[in-house]
Write a structure and sequence with these properties.
single chain; 840 residues
Length: 840
């Protein structure tokens, strides 16, 4: 694979490959006479289904690099309902893996042959299978129909024919669920019909598989499922965080071109920000695209929207752009369009993302399905307020992040700007509701906010230079996810990252040696013991009950027999313990046994099964992998921090799969978002500010009182509102009443000069004692002060007492106060500490 899979993708692919291999084994055993197999990949929109499918197919075609080699008998057909979807899928597979070169074949009307040659991945769409298609009949120069070709291919080797159904929920509606008769073309592959036997192994891919499941439920097929959880997809950064929607103020008429110019200004802003990001953080420059949705054609023009006027409006903002910077994707006019002053080239939707020159694309509806363009970060629509669904479908194609991760350094780059000049307030709220709800076919549910009042505040660099050393001393934490990778897989991924980045080039070899040494020692210790030999015996043999029925007496007699396992049964058991252990440790241990011992291959496999199947050995393996993971993170902490954003992000994601919160360095971003409205205040001296040097923010009464007190001090250098923003926030782990570990974010970081003129950092956290989690958060802050207090001048918990009009403050840098707070269990207990120990 050319891409490094994210942890959740690795787990999902491992499950998917395991299920498919088990299905292949079963069909290989029973052939076409069996019930059939179905594997469902449940992949939410934006999960990277094609990348995961590419990884799984690469494993199936070319082996896993360990125990399984290349399979030159395998034939895979990828079925979708649109030709352009297949085209883009092919491009993604080629981009994901160089090993598919010359193995991707499109089945079109020119396809000829008696059957599909093995070793290839074939692309077929249901539109080619209608009654009027040349593919479905023989004659002329075609010796066989596509149904005959598929039938022969399936019968050649049923276990080595896979059908992948993309968007498997489509075409699965059924009028009568009690019958097995196919009502759509795609159902014919699942259920079979007169011209085609039911396909023995089906792999369905869908974000919403309920309809597919319902069809499968009417069949005796064995069903297996591999699922990418939506929470993991959101946490991964594969999807943009938000859609920012703009409309004209007060429903102004004739505001189309004005808003188009605002969209062009947004395009320039994205260009500047991406250039800064590439220069300072790497690894590559993203070239943003403005997509402009125009009105349908009229009797006299290609569109009711004046395209020449639109280009003039754009260039009043951007300045002259090159001729190739503009393109159109009009499906009803797929050719260049000539005007008096310029020529507008045609660009197919599937080619937009890879085109190095295009900056502005005009289209009507052709971009709504069948393509993805993460570069398209600004959208302008001239269409009316009745086109909610079309606009939602369009946005669904644009929510993937260009770098396949969040941008920690500039939050503005984690959103899409959407301009809707013909939407009034009511229509705007309607489209916002549609975008927030999402759509299983085209759009994941996204966060949506109105653009009015949004402010991008950049970091004050001269001030930041003064406080940089103090910031560098602050440690934050990554809180583990509820659903985590196994310690062995986590260590394998970390070793790969350390090796790829040059921090520890032989990390994979070190990890393998330590874990295999542990397993070999466990084997040497247990070998020969009664329980070990019993496991070996059970694995070597299969128990059978033979029942004899006497037709004379009607009596039955049962005898218990033990027969030797077949080589294939042994291999399946061997693979099962290997998948459970991870990192191909079963193969590595097998080679070590063969190298150091005098046993044959099958006996060595039995020893592996007995070793990796032992619960105590699995626990010891997890402990060793966890210890090595933690040791490497601590040992190479400085080198990891010096990596560029992409490389460091890979390791940060692994921290989220640790068993305990992981310490990281605070990295304040280059820019943050804020919002100015009738409830916000323009605050001075914030590290991030607008053109006037202010930071708009809403604060409650006790937060206002706390920050006003700091601003009034002559020692203040700057302050930061500590909102959740990845590495750019101070996150402190705390334990909820449910036992779940979560992150708390103290409200403010304050930087000031001490008596000696040096810069010190303070934590200031105005507290609401009415909140249920106040004691747990207070205790966590005290624990943090115990570990990291020397990096701060003050660590203040504050409560504003309205009745007495005073602040009550606990400074957790003071050991006697910190000790008391660490014992807090209830709100009343915490309140009593403020009353007794707080400073008014």
């Amino acid at each position: 694979m050319k891409f490094t899979l994210l942890p959740f993708q690795e787990e999902t692919v491992a499950d998917l490959v395991s299920h498919i291999r088990n299905s292949i084994d079963e069909v290989g055993r029973v052939g076409l006479q069996g019930a059939g197999q179905a594997v469902v990949l449940v992949a939410p929109t934006g999960a990277g289904k094609t990348v995961m499918a590419a990884a799984a197919l690469e494993n199936l075609f070319f082996g896993d690099g360990q125990s399984l080699g290349e399979d030159d008998e395998l034939t895979v057909v990828w079925l979708s309902d649109l030709p352009n979807v297949n085209e883009q899928t092919m491009k993604k597979l080629e981009a994901a893996s160089e090993r598919f070169d010359r193995r991707l074949v499109t089945i079109d009307n020119n396809f000829r042959g008696d059957e599909l040659p093995p070793g290839n991945l074939y692309f077929l769409n249901t539109q080619k299978l209608g009654v009027n298609s040349n593919l479905v009949s023989s004659g002329d120069d075609r010796d066989a129909s596509i149904w005959e070709i598929l039938t022969r291919t399936i019968r050649r080797n049923p276990a080595k024919f896979l059908l992948v159904i993309d968007e498997a929920h489509r075409g699965m509606e059924r009028a009568n669920t009690s019958t097995e008769e196919a009502t759509t073309i795609v159902q014919r592959f699942v259920l079979g019909f007169s011209d085609l036997p039911k396909v023995p192994i089906i792999v369905g891919i869908s974000a919403t598989p309920e309809r597919f499941d319902a069809v499968l439920a009417s069949t005796p097929r064995v069903r297996r499922r591999a699922t990418a959880e939506i929470a993991d997809v959101r946490a991964s950064g594969l999807l943009k965080d938000r859609i920012v929607v703009w409309r004209p103020e007060h429903g102004l008429e004739h505001s189309d071109m004005t808003l188009l110019q605002r969209a062009a200004q947004s395009l320039l802003d994205y260009q500047v920000r991406w250039h800064r990001h590439a220069t300072e953080h790497g690894p590559r420059l993203v070239r943003p695209v403005l997509v402009v949705q125009v009105e349908d054609k009229t009797a006299t023009s290609i569109s009711a929207t004046d395209l020449e006027q639109a280009i003039e409006a754009i260039e009043e903002v951007t300045g002259p752009l090159s001729p190739d910077a503009y393109a159109h994707s009009f499906g009803d006019a797929p050719a260049p369009i000539s005007y008096d002053s310029r020529r507008l080239r045609y660009l197919r939707p599937a080619d937009i993302d890879d085109d190095p020159e295009v900056t502005v694309v005009f289209f009507k509806t052709s971009l709504s399905t069948g393509w993805d363009c993460p570069r398209a970060e600004v959208i302008m629509s001239f269409r009316g307020a009745q086109d909610d669904t079309a606009i939602a479908q369009l946005v669904g194609r644009l929510v993937r992040t260009p770098l396949a991760r969040r941008v920690e350094s500039d939050d503005a780059l984690n959103g899409v700007a959407l301009y809707l000049p013909k939407y009034d307030r009511g229509a705007l709220q309607r489209i916002i509701a549609k975008l927030r709800a999402g759509d299983p076919d085209t759009l994941p549910a996204v966060d949506v906010e109105e653009g009015e009042g949004q402010v991008h505040c950049d970091r004050n660099e001269p001030i930041f230079e003064q406080i940089a050393d103090a910031v560098g001393r602050i440690r934050s934490y990554t809180v583990p996810r509820p659903r985590r990778m196994s310690p062995v897989l986590r260590l394998e991924a970390l070793s790969g990252s350390l090796s790829d980045t040059g921090i520890l080039e032989d990390a994979p070899d070190q990890a393998d040696q330590q874990l295999v040494d542990l397993l070999f020692e466990r084997l040497a210790t247990r070998r020969g013991t009664p329980d070990f030999e019993e496991v070996v015996k059970r694995s070597r043999e299969v128990g059978l009950d033979a029942t004899t029925l006497s037709y004379l007496t009607g009596e039955t007699e049962t005898a218990h027999l033990r027969v030797e396992s077949t080589s294939r049964s042994l291999e399946r058991l061997y693979d099962q313990v290997g998948r459970k252990a991870g990192a191909a440790l079963h193969d590595k241990l097998w080679r070590r046994i063969r190298q150091d011992g005098d046993v044959d291959g099958d006996t060595a496999r039995l020893y592996v099964i007995a070793t990796l199947g032992d619960a105590n050995t699995q626990r010891a393996l997890s402990v060793a992998a966890t210890q090595m993971f933690d040791d490497w993170l601590a040992e190479h902490a400085d080198s990891i921090e010096d990596l560029d954003d992409d490389e460091r992000r890979e390791i940060d994601e692994l921290r989220e799969h640790a068993d305990e919160p992981s310490k990281i360095r605070l990295v304040l971003p280059d820019s943050v978002r804020a919002r100015r409205d009738n409830r916000s205040v323009d605050w001075p001296h914030h590290l991030y500010c607008d053109e006037d040097g202010n930071f708009p923010e809403r604060l409650n009464d006790w937060e206002k009182a706390a920050i006003e007190q700091e601003i009034s001090s002559n020692s203040l250098v700057c302050w930061v509102r500590n909102k959740p923003r990845g590495r750019g926030s101070l996150a402190i782990p705390y334990t909820k009443s449910t036992g779940e570990v979560a992150a708390m974010y103290p409200d403010f970081l304050v930087f000031r000069r001490d008596a000696g003129g040096g810069i010190v950092a303070d934590i200031i956290d105005p507290h609401g004692l009415h909140l249920e989690d106040a004691p747990a958060k207070a205790k966590a802050l005290a624990e943090y002060a115990q570990k990291h207090g020397t990096a701060f001048g003050r660590i203040l918990m504050m409560v504003y007492d309205k009745d007495q009009e005073r602040h009550v403050t606990l400074d957790l840098r003071r050991s006697e106060i910190r000790t008391q707070v660490r014992t807090v269990t209830t709100t009343a207990h915490l309140q009593s500490l403020f009353d007794l120990a707080g400073d008014g």
